[in-house]
Amino acid sequence: MLLVGERINASRKRIAQAIKEGDVNIIRKEAMAQMEAGADYIDVNAAPFMEKEEEYLRWLVTVLQEVSDIPLCIDTPSQGAAAVALRLGAAG
Known about the structure:
Blueprint: E1 4-9, H1 13-21, H2 24-36, E2 41-45, H3 53-67, E3 72-74, H4 79-91
Parallel strand pairs: 1-2, 2-3
Helix pairs in contact: 1-2, 2-3, 3-4
């Protein structure tokens, strides 16, 4: 069984605020807590910010790659946003 940490999701008020403010500490703490709880993947979702989703996903992937070596699960309905995040992930 694989566990996917689902807490870095912009539909959560605290995460949405952290994304808007560029608060890396909150994002890092969430990622670390999920990894310590046994997550095999970290889900990353910024879809509620449709007009800035690509920008925010780029930022989130960069922040998460600084603290984690487990795979990210890019959760987006946007093909363009997914492509941006996946290119960045492949380069990291």
